[in-house]
Every structure is written in structure tokens, then in C-alpha cells.
Amino acid sequence: MDNSTPATGMHQENEKKKLKGDRLPCSPSRVLHICHIPNDVTEAEVISLGLPFGKVTNLLMLKGKRQAFLEMASEEAAVSMMNYYTPATPYLHRQPVYIQYSNHRELKTDNLPNQARTRAALRAVNAMQLGNMGMANALAVEGRLLPGQSSVLRIIVENLFYPVSLEVLYQIFSKFGSVLKIITFTKNNQFQALLQYADPMDARYAKLSLDGQSVYTGCCTLRVDFSKLNSLKIRYNNDKSRDFTRCDLPSGNQHPPSEPSVLAAYGTQNIIFPSYAGAAGFASSMGFPQGAGLSVPGVPGAVAVNTPAMSGHMTVPGVTGIPVNSVLLVSNLNSEVITPDGLFILFGVYGDVHRVKIMFKKKGNALVQMADAVQAQIAITYLNGQRLYGKVLCATLSKHQTIQLPRAGQDNHDLTKDYSNSPLHRFKKPGSKNFHNIFPPSATLHLSNIPPSVTDHDLTNLFAKAGSTVKAFRFFQKDCKMALIQLGCVEEALHALIELHNYDLGENHRLRVSFSKCTI
User: Fold this and answer.
1) Which of 163, 231, 407, 409 is most buried (most C-beta within 10 Å)?
2) In this structure, are 160 and 247 located in the same domain?
3) For residues 3-19, b (16+ Cβ closer than 10 Å) or e, as one string?
4) Average pLDDT of the residues in 284-296
5) DSSP single-letter state for residue 234
6) What is the pLDDT of residue 453?
């Protein structure tokens, strides 16, 4: 079992002296070690910690030692869970519990006694996640899933000291399931939103987890309840409303985004639909400590700037202090495949990469220097835990403040490169639309800068030759310079983006590749 005994003071001091550079994070495992659990906690309550992040496949409770081991279905799910809870301590029965990767790769509990309750709890959870109606009805009888608990949530943001955009809400609530639609509006001087999940059970989990939490420390408190509506109808995709299942909706300029049914449900008086800065949406890493707000991994407290978020600038609102470190430590890379150019292209989706250094003695580790600290945090939020070339990528803040270039004449085997003046930077122009098109990695890629002579057959063949499984392809109806291509999985999309972004299509056109917010 994992050693949960605290180290002695002398041992801790010796360990500190050994840390001359970066401390590499623990190797990811789909088994998580949970410490300091309350004596009266139930199996279902421990399992609930992992529910928003994926399927829970096994559990071992050691109540005498106040420990538990939770096994997720994949490393990606476990990494997402760690990303969520690392900056913010979770609570069970109002007591803090602590989560770390286990040394175990899987749990073997078949021959252990007293596992009947655990197996029953896991079966119940899996039935709920698969949408088993019989289990859902059983839960309704037990009073856990009641009539009127629909897939649409009504969200009120109290003490709105900083802007809360549609993108902020999407990032927070998508941790609990597939978000289909969002409408934001203001009523009686309160910023509100309606949010629709694909599954009403996901809405239930989100309500239980998020009601009463604060987006930023000491302000922007979420009040979450079930809506009277069963579904949302959205006319426009803009900064006030969005249907994530449809990319073809118009922006609608300044027209109100919601249907009359929404207005009828909540009244029309004082609804003004204000504009909130979309760039503010990148502050959160979805960690919720008691009495605190969403925090950024590796940075104590909320990330802040002294001026409000403005269109065309990556800014993250908070309370005090500005993070200064823009260098990332990227580990668990596939050393046989990864190159500085590949990391430049990948991390360049989320900020302007200035330098990349792959470690000479440990080629599975690299340093990536972004243009500023906020872009570094954005890259961590979206790329940490993604599977790349068969391994789960780990991205954290480095101890280093900058990447030193090799001296003149020094042979660095092309492992350190400077990209400060690269023409491929996506965010160098203030006000660029790229600031508003930053999305999580997905299996669907957005392609642009396509010359008229290139056909759908040409592009699908290009991606197939790069090793991708092309599931679907569609040109934009009004602009054939752009298209969507859906690949077999997110990992394939990461590989294709690295391989084909800036690919020469002829006629002075180089292909631009980014992640799409929707599927075909």
C-alpha cells in the first residue's frame, strides 16, 4: 500500500536540499490514493469524488487507516480528477481529504472480504452513468432523483464583482457532463444563466457540487437549481447564448438570444443581456475549496490582473497578485517521437510559445516558455492530462523563470529552439479573433486558409496519410476556405494538428488547424 505516514522534519529538510531544479510530478496512475477520510463515510460518497471525471471501476476502503483507493477506468480520467482537486481540497462530511496518485496501477480486490457493499455501490453508479432507467426509477423512489429534476439548470451569480462569461460557465459545468446549450441574461440586476445537459443525472451532480461555490475568491457565488424548462431553444451563437450541437447558427448581432419560452418562464422585466468579456473565461481550473474560489494549479489564490478583461487581450480576473512564471515543465512525453517543433505547434494553440527545450539526459521531459504567465496557465488547463503519442502528458509550472539558450557554437542537438520571432504565433495581434476561439482538445478540428482548388477528397487523403481515421468532413457553406474534419479520437486530433498545421497546400496557402467547439 502507499505510505501515508508524514515524513519527519529532518527527512523533509534533506528532500528540500535535493531539489536543485524542477521536481517532476508523480507518475500518473488510474488508481488514486485518498487520505484522511471520515470514519463514517460511505462507499458511495467516496465514489462520488470521481463521478464527474469518468467511470469508477473499483474501490478499496481502509476505514481503520482512514484511507481509500479509487480506481478510474483510464489514466485520463484520473489525471482530470487530480487536476480538479490539486489546487482545492475536497471535503467529505465537512472534513478535508487529500488525493494523490497511487503506486498501484490497478486494484485487485476479488479475494478480499467485505467487498459486497463496494461492488453494489459500483453497480449502482455504473447503472446511473449508462442511463439505466430502472436504476433511475429506483433512485427516484429513494428520493435522490425527484420529479422536476430536469437536464436544465438555472444559475444565479451573486456578488458579481468580476465578469462571469458564457465560456467560464461552460468550463465549470462541463466537468460534470456534456453541456449542450447555455443562455445568459440579467434579471432584476442579477446575472443569470440557463444551462442544458445531455443527461439529467449530470445536471443533478452539477447542482449538488456547485451550488454555493464561488467562481473567484470571495465573490461570484453560484446559486444552482433545476429549471422549470425541459429544454432550451437557441437562435444565435454569440457571447450571450450558444448551442454547442449546432455550428450553423448566426451570431444574431445584438438580438436577444433566448426564445419567448425562456422569457415567459422567468419574466421579461429588466432583462438587458449585457456583454461580458469572453477572455475572462480562462481563469478557472475548477477547484472548489471550502469558502474559496476557483484557483489555478500551482498558484496560491486566484490569478489576477489590475485591469478588467478587454477584448483582444488574454486576461484573467481575480483578487490580488499577478503570476510571473511563464515557463512550463512538460513531462511523461514519448521521447521517440516528440520534437521542439511539435511542442511549439501544440502549445501554440493556447498561447505564443517563445522557447522550447527538451532535456538532453531525460528526453521525456521538456521546458516550454510561453509569452506570459496567463498563457502558461491556459496551456496547463487544456493540455495537462491529454494523451499524446501513447502517453499521458503532464504539464505544470516550472521552477525556472526562463529558458536559457545554448552558447554560440555549443552543440545542443537541436533540443533547444527559440521561436520568439516565429510568424506562426496565433496571438501576436491585439484584437485577433483567435482570442475568442480557444477550445479544449477535441476529435473535431477546424481547418482554415484552404485554397479554392483543394477538395474534400484532397484534405481527407492528407489526414489519412498522416495516420488519422477520418470519420466525417464538411466545408462551411458560406466560406469554403474553412472546414471541419472529425477524426477517430482526441489523441489522433492532437497528432494531426502537430503534423499538419502550417502544411503547404499550394497557391501561397498554408493550412491552419485548431480545435473545434462542436462535432459535425
Assistant:
1) 163
2) yes
3) eeeeeeeeeeeeeeeee
4) 32
5) B
6) 92
